[in-house]
Design brief:
single chain, 220 residues, alpha/beta, Rossmann fold, three-stranded antiparallel β-sheet, 15% strand
């Protein structure tokens, strides 16, 4: 069994690496955003609680989010392990997760931290462009359209969304530093944190992660 957490700032590549690691280790990738939407869509008791907050424009409480994660971990496909993508987000969630896993006689084995300098994160995040008509996604550096400012698929205008602008991104990174970054110290003290350089090709970063996991497993 291998229970893992994947940490990293917005734009670090958590989602991409989560997909790769899920396939390599045959464990489900669990995103809090996905399970939140699933609970709301399926009108579960937890989903109803969450929807009450969302309808008011408020953040869903840590307690509800942790309960959703634990409920998901209890499903049969997590029997041999799981990969938490971007959760926990703060110390309260981390401590609640640890307490709940202890009741299940489970514990986190590895915390993978994909580390990318803020300058590079800004470059990645502010370069995204989206088609107004068909919502196709582009990046001015990594995947530009064939014709500047026009969608390859439908020919409509592509634009930069407000939440991809530099001021908004800078605020998101600030929140990450304040709320999530302290988790690095928390998991380092427990001997679980594996720092990974997030600069480079997708496959080479995946290789670095698996090597770090193998090393830690051999030493445990």
């Amino acid at each position: 069994m291998s229970d893992m957490i994947l940490l990293g700032a917005p734009g670090a590549g958590k989602g991409t690496q989560g997909v790769n690691l899920s396939k390599l280790y045959s464990i489900p990738q669990i995103s809090t955003g996905d399970i939140l939407r699933e609970n709301v869509r399926n009108k579960t008791p937890l989903g109803a609680k969450a929807k009450g907050f969302m309808d008011r424009g408020a953040l869903v409480t840590d307690e509800i989010v942790v309960d959703m994660v634990i409920d998901r971990i209890a499903k049969p496909d997590c029997a041999n392990g799981f990969m938490l993508d971007g959760f926990p987000r703060n110390m309260a969630q981390a401590e609640a997760l640890e307490a709940m896993l202890s009741k299940m006689e489970r514990e986190i084995d590895h915390v993978i931290g994909i580390e990318v300098p803020n300058k590079e994160l800004l470059r990645r995040l502010t370069g995204r462009r989206v088609c107004r008509k068909c919502s196709a996604s582009y990046h001015v550096i990594f995947s530009p359209p064939l014709n500047i400012g026009m969608c390859d698929k439908c020919g409509d205008e592509i634009y930069q969304r407000d939440d991809d602008k530099e001021d908004t991104i800078a605020e998101r990174l600030k929140v990450y530093e304040e709320e999530t970054h302290p988790l690095i110290s928390y998991y380092t003290e427990k001997g679980l944190y594996r720092a990974i350089d997030g600069i480079g090709g997708v496959d080479s970063i995946t290789d670095s992660i698996t090597e770090a996991i193998d090393r830690a497993s051999d030493n445990s």
